[in-house]
UniProtKB/TrEMBL annotation:
Superkingdom of origin organism: Bacteria
InterPro entries given in the database record: DedA_domain, VTT_dom
Keyword Cell membrane: yes
Compartments where found: Cell membrane
Principal location listed in the UniProt entry: membrane
Keyword terms, alphabetized: Cell membrane, Membrane, Transmembrane, Transmembrane helix
Bilayer disposition of the protein: Multi-pass membrane protein
Spans traversing the lipid bilayer: 12-30, 50-71, 140-163, 169-190
Protein's UniProt name: Membrane protein DedA, SNARE-associated domain
Domain VTT: 30-160
GO cellular component: plasma membrane
Any Pfam family the entry gives: VTT_dom
Amino acid sequence: MFDWITGIIDSLGVVGIAVLMFAENVFPPIPSELIMPLAGFNAARGDMPLIGVIIAGTIGAVAGAYMWYWIGKRIGMRRLKDLSDRHGRWLTISPDEIDQANGWFQRHGGLAVLIGRLIPTVRTFISVPAGVARMPLKRFLAYSTAGTVVWNLFLTLCGYFLESQYERVVSWLDPVSTAVVVGILAFYAWRVATYGRRMRRHAASGSK
């Protein structure tokens, strides 16, 4: 994957960075932890402007985030609750929990999007509940862009200042990203395993 990313950046320049960051937000296995430090290293060598690298990476990432926001908005609350009613165990959430989550997102959605954009894997899918909750588009784009700029700036500057030693950044960030993914999968497995218990608890509290 490293050679593939390098080839695209070398061939397309800042446009390639935007394309890669869009793809990274659509297909999470493509890591921004490789793309942006490498782009920062190229900027340090003078192959492309630093500000252009950051702008291109941000445009691509926000475009990918908007795509997931649009998907969430198209699914909508009613359809999501219908899916939960039929396949709640595998979605790990009940219609009542969707209502609770939506209420929380209506109150704190901006902060959730901002912070979510700084967390590997989560940064991709945080856009879906924003769309489902119908967060105003301008608000979504503002928070998503802010979080994306912080993340991209950090990764790019690491590559820029470390230059040829940017592999050290990757060697540190890659295990962190892996740990986050493993944690998310473990949380999903726990949600599936405890779904029945949570539903019984909800039913008992609702009957009181």
